[in-house]
Amino acid sequence: MPKNSDAEKNNPCLKEQELSYKCLSKNNFDHGKCELYYANYNNCKEFWNKVRADRRAHGIFPHLPDVADRETIKAEYMRTKPI
Q1: For residue 65, with 0-12 CB atoms within 10 Å meaning exposed, 13-18 middle and 19 or more buried, which class applies?
Q2: What angle do CA 18, 43, 23 make, to 5 degrees?
Q3: In whole angstroms, what is the distance from residue 67 CA to residue 28 CA?
Q4: By the number of CB atoms within 10 A of the CB, which of 31, 67, 73, 81 ranks highest?
Q5: Dihedral angle of Cα 27, 29, 35, 37, to the nearest 10 degrees
Q6: Helices 14-26 and 35-57, packing angle to 10 deg
Q7: pTM of the full predicted structure?
Q8: Hey, what's the torsion of the CAs at 25, 36, 15, 23, to 10 degrees?
Q9: Tens digit of pLDDT at every position of the chain (83 positions)
């Protein structure tokens, strides 16, 4: 099955999503064993939804940054986030 070429562009949490699916498959779909993967995926979605909303509010297009810029944006957030 060919991979969707735009999947990473449209879903900044693709890696986290795939890891949660892989965990479910590995653990016979026991959701309790994959809670950390879900939490990581949900944190990722929350972060990128905030980035998307902020860019939209400031008129920055595209609302979701390019794949190449995402690591820089995450690193900047981690450097400046309040403790």
Answers
A1: middle
A2: 30
A3: 32
A4: 73
A5: 70
A6: 160
A7: 0.86
A8: -10
A9: 446 878 999 999 999 999 999 999 999 999 999 999 999 999 999 999 999 999 999 999 999 999 999 999 999 988 887 76
